Amino acid sequence: MKGNFEFWTRKSNRSLGVIECIDPNCSWRLRASKIVPESTKFVIRKYVGVHSCSLLNRNANHRQAAYVVIGEQVAHQYVGVEKGPGPKGVQTFARTKLGAQISYYKAWRGRKHAHTLIRGSPEQSFHVLPSYFHMLEKLNPGTVTHIEVDGESRFKYLFLAFGVAIRGFHYMRKVVGIDGTFLKGQYRGVLLVATTQDSNGQCYPLAWGIVNSENEDAWTWFLTQLKEIIGDTDELALISDRAPSIKKAISFIFEKAHHGAYFVGYMIEILNKYPRVAEYLENEVGFEKWSRCHYPGLRYNITTMNMVESLNSMLVNARDFPYVSLLDVIQEKMSKWWNDRRIIGMALITPLTQSRESQLRPCFAQSNGRHTLQLNPVTYHVKGGELEGVVDIFNKI
Question: Exposed e or buried b for every residue in 360-369, given b needs 16+ CB within 10 A?
Fold first, then answer.
């Protein structure tokens, strides 16, 4: 292929194969036959490796540069990476390394074949999913997995929550963001995620799911599995984009938890620029769904879905992977996150995390010169300068 020589198959059957150069006057040829008649292995009986044809017969648009061959040659560039070269990159590889000019479509098919060689096919992924989940549960104590199939035993939904995430949720703020992102593989689907924040304000993924679409049945199934690992209390807050399917599923599954909508921006600015939107937020959605001061539960300072969106962005290059390969990427990233944070946590010399220390330092500087008088175990009278008031630590007011 590098020399731009083309060949054709002169003879091919179960026991003999003969290929020759496309120039009938060229001496290049290869003949192979079975070692013995009953064997499945072939041995080369004759090979003339020198082309005697004219250079005019050489063709950069090589007939043997099939997408399968291109995929096999470029597959190594997709090992250990999420993205790898795109179709144009495959075209460049074929031109510079193989000496073949290929179309964009052939490059796309070659790239797809390389993905299959490295990550397996979607069909293979469905086949190994039960054993994959079995090994996850065996090697990660406490991990919870579920696979839902339809009446014909075909894949429908999956759910995955790593044991370490379940155990750690006890120490996290009870504010859980839920959302979904579309997958781009052969069978499409939607990746669902439930996440909270750790004490350093970083994403702490709790559970993952793959469903056919963001409909009420899919969300109900996913949230039912989620409820099994995080429970349902009035201290729990669920934050979402308030899509009708999510809203119905949450109200049905989480009877005690509070449900809020994510809110981006400032109400005064919205009121001035978009009065109809402001009216919708006030009258139809309700202040308690997006305003921290009116929210009945504890949602702290989490008023957006940034923690969920950042997870979706993290997986943007893996959304066209077969499901098991996608879960492999998730497992690898989560393992790295938790190990990195463990190392940082063990190195701390302060009782609070780095981000919380950074938030408190300017507040501490502002508090100098103020006098506090304790009224009871949780209430203080604070005064100093032009400021004076009563602080209730328990109710956070």
Answer: eeeeeeeeee
